[in-house]
User: Fold Helix-turn-helix domain-containing protein from Rossellomorea marisflavi.
Amino acid sequence: MIGERVKKYRTEKKMSMTELADRAGVAKSYLSSIERNLQQNPSVQFLEKVSAALGISMDALLHDAPEETPLDYEWMKITEEAMDSGITKDQFREFIEFNKWKLGQK
Assistant:
């Protein structure tokens, strides 16, 4: 059940229900009803918001699929911020390479 998976991932991330609801921008009461399986068919928008806030794929919520490359919430927000700033993938890769070079100089 989706509600059980939401609760499992939320508790694994050590998030309270209030914290997840705030991060995802969803109503705590609705999140609670999902976790308790009172609501069993959440919308795609709800699943997108909750999975992003948990730093997991929607597929993990739907199918309990193992995460291949889990990103926590903070990394997801940093990535979004970089994208919103207009940085290109090439510029980001260049920064990573520069940072690797700089660390190698020490």
In short: Residues 22 and 65 are 25 Å apart (CA to CA).
